[in-house]
Amino acid sequence: MKNEILSVSNLIIDYPRAGKPPFRAVKGVSFNVFENEFFGIVGESGCGKSTVAKALCGLLPITSGSASFKDVPQHAVQMVFQDAVGSLNPRMTIGQTLAEVLSVYNLCPREARTERIATLLDEVGLPAEVALAYPRELSGGQCQRISIARALAMNPRVIIADEPVSALDVSVQARVLNLLAELRQRRNLTILLISHDLAVVRTVCDRLIVMNAGEIVERGDAKTLFANPQHPYTQNLLAAVPDIAEAY
Ligand SMILES: Nc1ncnc2c1ncn2[C@@H]1O[C@H](COP(=O)(O)OP(=O)(O)OP(=O)(O)O)[C@@H](O)[C@H]1O
Ligand SMILES: [Mg+2]
Fold first, then answer.
1. Which residues form the domain of 187?
2. Ligand 1: residue whose CA is nearest its atom 28
């Protein structure tokens, strides 16, 4: 049986503008996500993906409608962003960054922190020595693994990953996506993956919504949708992805 973990209903989000009427970035979006699902939100730049993501995390006020997680406290919804390198403090080692999360949120007794950090690094496929490194000494892919480890430190139930692989080389993209897919199984996570790139979403998502100009234009399970896109917008998006165009 599928349990609903997130319900979004007629969500509307306006950005205020000085001297002008507000800009409606999200125009009445409804969808639901099930527990342990890998759910995709795709669409071109500016369609409102990040606006939806921020509203889900409580980082943006909702103009009307609702977006609510069922029995998931705020701290158990964690975000992973595109700019992994920029999201890490350059003056702190990876170990210090992770230790800070563990101590601020009181997640682990001081004497157990080193071991906990090693475990977190191992979970994201990095050796324990990485704790001694600074962000500038790591690759983009490694930094994205660290930001995933930082999210995991909070014992999340939901991870919202906003363009987590857009800044990475294609070969590295696949490995980070596989890591997310693995973690989803191992930790029973629900993952919302946001991307402008259909090729990225296609590899891992169970179901997805396609957004255009603040609205959902298509939705469904990934296999069906990619095999037979109904909406001209989705057909165009698919045609614009070379490897997918070849596959169909
Ligand atoms: N703080 C803001 N104030 C006013 N308008 C904004 C603000 N942030 C975003 N917008 C506008 O809202 C719309 C949706 O932006 P959003 O960042 O959600 O798009 P996106 O789908 O995440 O795009 P991208 O793929 O480029 O990240 C865009 O037209 C954008 O210009
Ligand atoms: Mg965005």
1. 4-247
2. 46
Number of domains present in the structure of the chain? 1
How is residue 121 written in tokens? 């690094």
Task: Answer yes or no: is the C-beta of 22 below 6 A from any ligand 1 atom.
Answer: no
- The per-residue pLDDT for range 76-113, each reduced to its tens digit, is 999 999 999 999 999 999 999 999 999 999 899 999 99
> Does the beta carbon of 173 lie inside 6 Å of ligand 1?
no
Q: Is the CB of 45 under 6 A from ligand 1?
A: yes
Tokens of 240: 């614009």
Measured from the CA of 196, which atom of ligand 1 is nearest? 25
Cα 70 to ligand 1 centroid, rounded to whole Å? 27
Residue 65, H or E segment = strand 64-69
Per the document, the length of the chain is: 248
Q: Report, in angstroms and rounded to the nearest whole number, the Rg of the chain calculated over CA atoms.
A: 19
Helix axes 140-153, 94-104, angle to 10 degrees: 20
Q: Whose CA is nearest to atom 22 of ligand 1?
A: 50
In the chain, what percentage of residues exceed pLDDT 90? 85
Phi, then psi, of 90 in degrees rounded to 5:
-65, -20
Q: How many angstroms separate the CA atoms of 102 and 248, rounded?
A: 47
Protein residue closest via CA to atom 7 of ligand 1: 15
Output the domain CATH number for residue 61.
Answer: 3.40.50.300
- DSSP H or E run through 210: strand 207-212
